[in-house]
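User: quick one
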Amino acid sequence: MEGAHNPGREKISSRKPKLYHQSGESSIFVESILDSLNPTDIKDPEYFHKVVDCQYACPAHTPVPEYIRLIAEGKYTEAYMINWVSNVFPGVLGRTCDRPCEPACRRGRIEEEPVAICRLKRVAADYKEDVSQLIPGKPASSNGKKIALIGGGPASLTVARDLAPLGYEIHLYDDQKAGGGFMRSQIPSFRLPEEVLNEEVGYILNMGIHTHFNHYVSSLKELMTQGYDAVFVGTGAPRGKDLPELPGRWDSEGNIHIGINWLANVAFEHTKAIGKKVLVIGGGNTAMDCCRTSRRLGGQDVRVVVRSPMNELKASPWEIEDAQHEDIPFYPLHSPKAFITEGGKLKGMEFELVEARYEDGKRKLVPTGEIVFMEADDVILAIGQENSFPWIERNLGMEFDKWGLAVVDPLSFQSSIPSVFFGGDAAFGPKNVITAVAHGHQAAISIDLFCQGKDLIKDRPHPMTNLTRQKMGIHEWSYDNQTANDKRYKVPHADKARALTDRLLEVELGFNEETAYREAQRCLNCDVQTVFTDSKCIECDACVDICPTSCITFTPNDEEEALRTRLSAPALNLDQDLYISGILPTGRVMVKDEDVCLHCGLCAERCPTSAWDMHKYLYHAPKACSL
Amino acid sequence: MTYARPSFRHPQIARNDIGFSKKDYEGALSTLCAGCGHDSISAAIVQACFEMSIQPHRLAKLSGIGCSSKTPTYFLGNSHGFNSVHGRMPSVATGAILANKDLIYLGVSGDGDTASIGMGQFVHAIRRNLNMVYIVMNNGCYGLTKGQDSATADEGSVNKSGAENPFQGIDLCGLGIELGAQFVARSFSGDKTQLIPLIKAALKHPGFALIDVISPCVTFNNNAGSTKSYDYTREHMEATAAVDLVPMKSEITIDQAGGTVELIKLHDESHIALNKLHRDWDPMDKISALRNLHEARLRDEILTGLIYLDPNSRDLHAILNTSDRPLNQMAENDLCPGTEALEKINQSYR
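Assistant: Done. Structure below.
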């Protein structure tokens, strides 16, 4: 999972490096005692991993630059498979991912916007050829172990995919009629077409998974008597929050909806219409899906009303933007006061305006006393969701915390009952699809170790890493090292008038191949690492002189804090490491600030001795089976 | 293949007093060999001009022929430039300086361009005290024609093919002092902390300022036995003093004034601060400077830093009392005032 914060480096004191000093006396070297830093250990697998910001930020550690290069080469199938191995649902995630990679993207620190990583992933899924031959089918032989997965969402499906090829007999239980969990019931079709989800869920179910759909597991105790070697709980956070105490909440019937339930009803076509005036309460991504779905089911005056200030909405900025594009106004700083009904019929809602005040860095919402009424035919509550485990008997010996969550080990995902594992939203509360996938990988590793009687912590597999030289000739690299100046490309959208009349019509059209190529060229190839070999360096300064972003400095060694202030450019981003060499002949060290390195390879191109060289670093996060 | 530097720079890139960043002082991507000392000197020039807030259009680069003389393409891309004939840069400089005394003149030459084909021109540029900085990128060989020994190669230095140089090398600093140059310094491309302040001080000097910069040729003269390699220069360089340029408006801190620091006041009230490392060296005494040069050579040392300085330099304009107005700002009637004016002048002799 997460690597150490400053991998590859530890502080030492009382070293005695020789310091460069000009002196007319006897020697140009003087001895000095310094509190200085050890050279960076680039053999630590996490050091270069951390330089690949996007991959490091991705919970599943997808090798992003690797597949982006393949997209630029038109190798969509290969790009898709790299994704599929890491994140299991490239087509789904290429449309719906929360994109933790994009805020981390180095490009966003160089210019305004990061690479459109998420939408490039979709390009790989859209333009790939038939991949069914590349995906494992039913295993040839069984290993005699039987695993139950409760819940058919991304976490459980990931466990299934990682364990099935190893010969496990997998039983998947879900109360819905098909696999996919909340990816199916909560993400509207105009964001995620059903066929995309069916395809990727299908790849896994075709691995010989025994599915038990329309089957609600009502007792863990009973399930555990059925001879399973391990049980995985991936039931998500299925209970949408209500406002049960708000005046008027129970005075009308049928027009106040719980967001996630309402979305599921729409997805399974139990709900086909909504009133003209709709209030959506809440500012997260579920609220965005609710308001946009409402617009498609007949809502004309659809409003998003939320307590927090506009700049603190939980929804992803792009989802807010898409909602606004569909003429949905936002009313921030409105705190729900009462549901107003007339003769058992909902008329609207009252809100009290609040003010955001900041004290000691904390935000407080202070009531102003001003009351606002808004008319409504329907109200959808999208104010969060909770875990719920009514089906786990409390006398089984499983430990729960004060919030009703099972106590789960953050590394092994094992609960206090050794054979029961958790993952996805069920483990630590609501997050997102990519986090659920990452949990699934880790839980699968644990289940596999558990079934073999191994230690779940000590025996965990290491990441697979590979560092390969990219030099082809004097000025030639096996990657495209020219830095493109293009600004981020926008994904085209379907015609708004049409989109609003068809709930199933996907709004985003995805990049075409030409735009995908250009967007892919914006990637800085952060996985092509600048590797420094101090024994080869003649300290000619060529790298310092050529580096466009002033990353490299030769200086006497020092403590990190002091070093950071006296580099060619100040190293203010403390999240980014300094790459420090061993002591060079002049007594100095090479210090490279990884922060805004363009990975353009010019330092290596201008290095006469190949002390700098560009090496591609591939990091594959560990998984239960190698695919 | 990389033909151009990426256009992105560090987001917190520093800006100088006139709002420019270092990028505004850069030139095209160098085509010299990777690791060439000349590129470091180019970078030092960029840094010096950036720090001094020189307006790029106020500077003219002049050069001859050779690896060194190609470098003006690689720095100060927004300045004027004249790439002249081999060894003839001083003539072009003389013309340019006479035509316009308002510009800052930066001559870049090599050991061949200066000490061989251009020697005749070099000595007269010094004799006339042209107001210019003359940087010699000195690698002791002809790098552009496969590395033959040049006139500055030291006697006994071994070239890449293994042959020892049988001839004495010309010491450009000693020669410069002998010819009357009033700012003479030597430095090393691999030591920017020394080189940058020297370039800044030279740009301030109102007269001919010579900086002989040892600049290793990585391709042909960086072998064992060469006396102009990175390793040899690092092992044998001795500095007269750590040098710093204190701009005219800044206060002189105690740190700079204490210890063995000597301040030399320049014509514009700025100062050169010298933290002297050679006790018996007086930078303003020619004989002391020459003695230190000779003694260092006897000890197999390369003496670097400021070597000789006469802050009361009188350049060509002062000597000839030339017009302050550049020629291109004078109209035809200024330059050819007509028969009436000539008559007046003739009358004054009668």
